[in-house]
Amino acid sequence: MPNDVKTGSLAPDKKLKWVGTRPLRPDGVDKVTGRAKFGADFSLPGMLIGKVLRSPHPHARIKSIDTSKAEVLPGVKAVVTRDDFHDMESEFVPAGEMLVNYRDMVRNVMAREKVLYDGHAVAAVAATSNAVAKRALKLIEVDYEPLPHVIDVLEAMEPDAPLLHEDMITAGVEPAPDKPSNVAKVVEFAIGDVEAGFAQAEVIVERTFQTKPVHQAYIEPHACVASVSEDGQAELWCTTQGHYVVRGHCARLLGMDVSKIRVTASEIGGGFGGKTVVYLEPLALALSAKACRPVKMVMSRDEVFRASGPTSGAHMRIKVGATKDGRITAAEADLKYQAGAFQGSPVQPGAMCAFAPYDLENVKVVGYDVVTNRPKVAAYRAPGAPISEYAVECVIDELARKLGLDPIDFRLANAAKEGTRAAYGPKFGPIGLVETLQEAKAHPHYTAPLGPDQGRGVASGFWFNIGGETCAALNINEDGTAALMIGTPDIGGSRASLCMMAAEELGIDLDRIRPIIADTSSLGYTFLTGGSRVTFASGMATIDAAQDAVRQLCERAAKIWEIPSDAVEWEDGYAKPAGANAGDFEPMSLAEVAKVAGKTGGPIVGHAQINAQGAGPSFGTHIVDVEVDRETGRVTVVRYTVVQDAGKAVHPAYVEGQYQGGAVQGIGWALNEEYIYGEDGRLENPGFLDYRIPVASDVPMIDTVIVEVPNPRHPYGVRGVGETPIVPPMAAITNALADALGIRFTELPMSPPKVLEAIGEAAAGG
Amino acid sequence: MARGVLTGNLRKFTGGETEVELEAGNVRQLFRALGERYPNLRPHLEESLAVAIDGQIYQDAWFEPIPPDAEVHLLPQIAGG
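YS: structure for the whole thing
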């Protein structure tokens, strides 16, 4: 099945040479030959190896830490504990576009009064070898006072639950509670009158759902090398989605000037939101500062699972009512998201997104941010949205079936469109949900015959997308080539898409532009690669920088021709007189102007520094066919189609890659992935053998349809595409299973034992 | 006069009011006017809120113009993964 691009009527009329094509990525050869340097690939002379001692307890008070034996072990050059980090005030401060509580962050990177989860860092050592570092960890004596723990979100909300933070008073409740609890915050979004709306409903579906925490499961573990000199100048190489954000966090946690830390982002082997925070980096810097030698730290897979990510698990109640002719009259949701050891689950965006695909008059969503003895959650593709929208999309499907309506027709009858007031407040501008639903319904997949024990499901999804602070610089070289410097690490092929936009603006061939991910001291502050923002925001900065360079190129040509600069125009890589009155001059190519740049005023460099606004929301609709093995309970995805609005696909192959990757991660979330804790509060499956992510043989080719409803706020119409694809799969697969078996699952993952049990219960009439 | 709409938990800082009419030519002037009218809201205005002006969301954009008669929603800032 060929992948497809559907262009909407608002497509830019500009004739494009590069944007919309599928060239090879500039970093491709390095990545397939092993030449590319990922986080663990950096080494420096005299480098030490850093290791972390982690808590074996899910919850315990630290009575004392004795590092004296480790410190005298030959080969050990530095040891750090809580005493090496200043305490921080409890305040939420902006860091980039994120609100960060550094009091929590300093406790997450190194436990202070208590350990709050299995795997919580307690001490770190730097030694001359891996073996010495491991031996040193065993010599550190930690006296713990074990405390009762709580893993489950509902149990954590009980009045007598073990308290993680004795001073946590629930925010967002009036009057404020007089006792602490594990509920950090309550959020609420409401429009209209849900009681009146349900009174108008002729059919109501209400169900509760549970999802489990799942890890971002990036293949490359967290890794860094830090080198702090005797005068306090620091260099840091690390795998991250945002090296400027890492710099800011480390400076704050270590009390350093931002200018003293220079961070270089390595190539990154997946992040999906999980590499937007710091774990090892402040420890490596602290160890290096103590030892005055470079320190390398790399997490094992066990550490990645126990001490980084994941996203929240949740307990949810969803209620939706509709009239018999298929109009939704009211929708309501209670969302209880577990945040892990420190507050900050993505329940707020989850609450805002829950009903975003629908045009509703009466909505109420209440969300709870709840701490538990698990690792602090980190962002994961469209943080919060896949969880709440999973539950809502299952109820929408069930409601459609009860009404006897086609699930796509039911969605179309209630779909958000331009002018619809979103459940979180503002009205949408141009959006493409209706177009994705129409394309899905028209797709051959939707009407293809199903085999025995097979079922088909659909679901839609939404994510906001963001812009943010972004810089770009475009150096025009003396031979007419160019170097594009950007500050967003390339995770999904952004070097290629950004160079394509630069080539379009400059009018030169793509292979004449070399993209560089600049370090934090070489380019101005740039927010991280996340929020589906890079092709949009770094794209806007790149276009601005290219237009700045073009302006300078025209000025130089004007000087040479001795005419006003506004009498010169740029077309297809050439400076030309703007009209007959400007004079009769032979057009000058970019290379010709660049060659004499030194004689006409000096180097030509285009710059842009922006806070990109106007990100376009993204919607998608997925179709999936599953087949159930009734003897084993195994569910096989036999066909999958993603339809999503990209605004404008700059590089369609990488847009398709985002669609396919999101769908596959969602398949894992739906069918197998979960954190399993024992009664002792310890994680029992911290490895890929027991934490089962989909591999190539588990999934079919994921078909894609790129819908293009242009974002009017981007020069080429771009919307972000990276996050929305993970939103619909869990509900689409749940709905397909309902179609195949007549059984409505309300818990993720729908792993073989659970499916088998449900089949058995159904057969027994349960 | 712009019409400001406060979503989510913000009404807890405004004595329950969710809609307000304010003279404000840009986002910073809006924040200042809201802070003067609702002192409990002031700590949240410039650090944790986005605004949507006639549906378009802006984050950290103090000088974004607010047209007369615009509908301005205040909502939590969005990050992402």
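YS: worth flagging: Chain B has a mean pLDDT of 89.
IM: good catch. Also The first strand of chain B starts at residue 2 and ends at 6.
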